[in-house]
Every structure is written in C-alpha cells, then in structure tokens.
Amino acid sequence: MKTNVIALLALCAFTGFSASALAGQKLRSDVMVTTDGISINAHGAIGTARNSLDANQRIGCVLKANTASSTLSASCDATSAAGTQAFCITSSPQLIEVIKSIGTDSYISFSYLPSASSNPTCSQINISDSSVYEPKKP
User: Terminal CA-to-CA distance of the chain, rounded, Å?
Assistant: First the structure.
C-alpha cells in the first residue's frame, strides 16, 4: 500500500511538471540600448516592445528603395524604456537579406560604431524568430 501511494505521488508530480513544460517557454525581451565602450548595441523583441506598459519602447528596421537607384538601403532603430535611442543605416546586401527575414514578432539585435555623422553604418544585424518571444497584442 505504501509503495502504491509513493508511486501515485511520483506520477502526480511528473504529470504536474509535464503539464507546465507543455505550456512552452516564454520570454519577455525588453528593448535595451547599451555600449561596450566600442560599439552601440540595441536588441529586443517586437512583441515585447509593442506590449510594454511604457510609451517609449520600439525596435524595427525599414527597407528603402527608389527609382533613381537600383541599390536597396535600410535603417534600424530602437528606443529603450528609459528613452535611450540607437539608429544605424546600411546598404550591405548581406545585412539587407537579414532584414528581409524580420517577422511580425521577431527578436532584433543590431550594432554599430559611434560616428560623427548622424547616420552611423550598421556593422551587425541579427534576427531571431522563435516561439519563446511574446507575440504582439492588439
């Protein structure tokens, strides 16, 4: 009888852990803008920024084209909850291909070297699409 009770408790504990594991991992990824002393780094999830309770958070990238040039260009920008901003531009075909993969709930990360220009050049752009990032709410 004692063995059955222990087995039943173990089964209940296992089932409880399994049910929570089936719910899936969820991450909030607020927009952050930082510097490592060399480059400016910005990252965050689109859904988290959209769902944030503050009125500042935003992150995204824009593709640009015009009839005068056959070259695509792009820019990425971010603003943290504290209001710290980051912005960079690129015409790199490799970085533009990465930007093309942005989805409605992607996690975006980009970096650039500070510049005297008001249009610093992006040095790195990373996009991650995963079920762990929260989707935008209406």
Answer: 54
| Other beta carbons less than 10 A from residue 49's beta carbon | 23
- Contact 78/33 with Cβ under 8 angstroms? yes
* pTM metric for this prediction: 0.81
The pLDDT tens digits of the residues spanning 51-71 come to 999 999 999 999 999 888 888
Q: Is the pLDDT of residue 75 over 90?
A: yes
* Residue 62 β-bridge partners: 75
SS3 labels along 53-121: CCCCCEEEEEEEEECCEEEEEEEEEEECCCCCEEEEEECCHHHHHHHHCCCCCCEEEEEECCCCCCCCE
**Residue 14 host element (H or E):** helix 2-22
Kindly state the DSSP code that residue 27 receives in the 8-state scheme. Answer: B
